[in-house]
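User: My instructor asked us to take a sequence, write out its structure as tokens, and then describe one feature of it. I'm not sure where to start. Here is the sequence I was given:
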Amino acid sequence: MTTAFVGLGSNLSHPRRQLARAVRAIGRLPRMRVVAVSPNYATAPIGCETPQPDYVNAVVAVRTALGPRALLHALHSIERRARRRRDRETRRNAARTLDLDLLLYGRRRLRVPGLTVPHPRMHQRAFVLRPLVDIDLVATIPGHGLARRLLRSVRDQRVVRTRSHFPR
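Assistant: Let's start with the prediction itself. The structure tokens for your sequence are:
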């Protein structure tokens, strides 16, 4: 079993509920056990071409026997059930019902078409680092170091703890 971290985000269709449903769906995946769920955080959109609502973000830690590609495929299936579109017509950083990103998969580094682990921009995103540190104080991003130390470099990004729809 490998410990993996998954980033969750939503800014459409009741975002906190979307995240709670996603956590439950992840926990129902075969060969998967949710071991920690961060608090939810409200964050401003980054890199958007048009105005959009704030996001709600969280991070979940899982123990899994699925390989990284199989895990990513399962996460994309959960997104599709939440009516997330991933196609050529959808703009990058567009508003979305659900976004599930494989952030870390053990200590592995992986770069194959459609999958890069660790997630390539996670070390620059407060909405990933803050909840990650909440559930694993010693989380390390291969090639970048301790997540808690990286928080200093993103302190200008607004990240505000908000209510959750899932039990702690």
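For the description part of your assignment, you could build on this observation: The CA atoms of residues 1 and 65 lie 5 Å apart. Try explaining in your own words what that tells you about the chain.
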